[in-house]
Structures are given as C-alpha cells and as structure tokens.
Amino acid sequence: MSWTHTDDALHHDFQFADFRQAFAFMTEVAFAAEAANHHPNWSNVYNNVTIRLTTHDAGNTVTDKDRKLAERIDHIFARYA
C-alpha cells in the first residue's frame, strides 16, 4: 500500500465495493488500533475510508507506532481487495 507522508502524518484513502465492506474494514481496524493503543483520525463516506496517522504524544509527528499500524491496516485491507 502506498501511504502518503505529508503534514507530519501518514495518509491513505481506501475504496470498497460498498458501505458494508467499508464499515467491516473500519471495525477490524478499530480492534487493531485498540490493541496497539494507537488510534487513527479517520472518516467514512459510503464506500470510502480516509485514514490519517500521527503520534499525538510525540508532538503530532510520524513514529514507528504509525508505521506499524499502517502496515497492520494494509494487511487488513488486502483481504478486501
């Protein structure tokens, strides 16, 4: 997956077949984020999910926490592709 590193954050837009798939993906990501104690900024409109990762307690910069969660999110998304 190709995450964009801009504005001190990792960004990615994900597209799905429909809202149900997008919501299922978000649910899986929510569990992964909670397990990592690292929560994304995200939004969802119908079949699109936009995710922004940054580490707040590191001054809102990109850290290994963000990279690891992005990698986990990519693995989750691969099952929907």
Automatic annotation (TrEMBL):
InterPro entries from the UniProt entry: PCD_sf, Pterin_deHydtase
Keyword annotations from UniProtKB, A to Z: Lyase
GO molecular-function term, one example from the UniProt record: 4-alpha-hydroxytetrahydrobiopterin dehydratase activity
Catalyzed chemical reaction(s): (4aS,6R)-4a-hydroxy-L-erythro-5,6,7,8-tetrahydrobiopterin = (6R)-L-erythro-6,7-dihydrobiopterin + H2O
Enzyme kind, highest EC tier: lyase
Pfam families: Pterin_4a
PANTHER family: PTERIN-4-ALPHA-CARBINOLAMINE DEHYDRATASE
Designated name of the protein: 4a-hydroxytetrahydrobiopterin dehydratase
Gene3D superfamilies from the UniProt entry: Transcriptional coactivator/pterin dehydratase (3.30.1360.20)
Record SUPFAM superfamilies: PCD-like
Keyword Lyase set for record: yes
Lineage per the UniProt record: Bacteria, Pseudomonadati, Bacteroidota, Saprospiria, Saprospirales
Similarity remark: Belongs to the pterin-4-alpha-carbinolamine dehydratase family.
EC number: 4.2.1.96
Domain of life: Bacteria
Taxonomic source organism: Neolewinella maritima
